[in-house]
């Protein structure tokens, strides 16, 4: 086949070779190691002269299939599967950075990524500077002689601010820096950072990629050259994904586009409704015309994503009453599930930040984040509307 296949065909049809049992659906390879045919094959595989699975910490048919599919969907050359999103973030940085290096990161990174940069990396002499997504003009002046990597998330959590990936790709190229983008919120269906010049694309597969709240997993994708170093790091430090999780996630990718279409359709309807509710002070959703970066969202994202944030006029206290008044929607910190989820970031996921740090990343005390699920949107709107009404 010479013509490049389309997204859904790759997501569904890319498959390892069948076993002699001629199964249609890929089996789970629950094995810690693989048998060599002879001494020469064992030697050659260990010497990296021929490909092949040796031990499931290094590779396994299920993790290989999951990663090969993801590379097709993201447009990257190579990748590794990791036990969690954080294993992906940490491996992608720790494998490529050394004492004395500096990272330029967007201020609104995921909480645990913040802990890696703020608490763990300084212990080994890796420093960072945060830059604000709404002040792109300040980024270039924050690049130092020892800056090695730019690390960002877009859309940001939970403020849903965007970074112009094309601009950032050019900035990274100009200064010869590795651009690492956590693409968890968008998924490869909505946005492909590698097309804009990202060298590394990191994922928490726990969220929309699995989409059903069942597993913890992650992935690091990128250029052959960089993944070679990250694979070496992962092989010897062991953050590998279990074959069972890889099997589940590979199946999940088969329905990623249809799920994301519905997440986004429901999210846009909810956001549009919230804008008409007189008790709501502010709504943010990248595909609403009122989003300050609406044009950028349309340029670099296929649809607006599954998250919506809003604030009620009564601030923190009324926000808490809204959460307590929900009847169907789950109150839990996860996101990207078939089930709609609500959370109050200031008192939970972002409670470890200072007030100033929260303000700098757009988290006001009354902000509520909704991960819009796949239930009928009328029921999602009804639940939020009754909770707001009685708050
Ligand atoms: C959840 C999340 C992570 C961490 O992923 P885990 O699978 O929970 O380890 C990293 N980045 C973003 C943007 C996330 O939402």
Order of helices and strands: HHHEHEHEEHEHEEHHHEHEHEEHEH
What kind of sheet is the major sheet? 7 strands, mixed
User: What is the third-level CATH name, the topology of the largest domain?
Assistant: Aspartate Aminotransferase, domain 2
List all distinct small molecules, including ions and cofactors, that are bound in this structure.
Answer: pyridoxal-5'-phosphate
The Rg value, from CA coordinates, equals 22 Å
In total, how many beta strands? 12
Could you explain how this protein is built, in words?
There is one protein chain. The chain is α/β, with parallel strands linked by helices and 391 residues long. It folds into two domains: 7-253, Type I PLP-dependent aspartate aminotransferase-like (Major domain) (Aspartate Aminotransferase, domain 2, 3-Layer(aba) Sandwich); 257-390, Alpha-Beta Complex (Aspartate Aminotransferase, domain 1), CATH 3.90.1150.10. It contains 14 helices and twelve strands. The protein has helices spanning 7-13, 39-46, 61-74, 85-94, 111-120, 165-174, 187-190, 224-237, 243-253, 256-276, 294-300, 315-325, 355-360, 377-389, and strands at residues 78-82, 102-106, 127-131, 147-153, 178-182, 200-204, 218-222, 280-284, 307-312, 330-331, 341-343, 367-371. Helix 10 packs parallel to helix 14 (377-389) and helix 12 packs across helix 14 (377-389). The longest helix has 21 residues, at 256-276. The mean pLDDT is 95. The protein binds pyridoxal-5'-phosphate (PLP). Residues 84-86, 89, 110, 153, 157, 182, 184-185, 204, 206-207, 216, 218 line the site of pyridoxal-5'-phosphate. Pyridoxal-5'-phosphate is lined by residues 84-86, 89, 110, 153, 157, 182, 184-185, 204, 206-207, 216, 218.
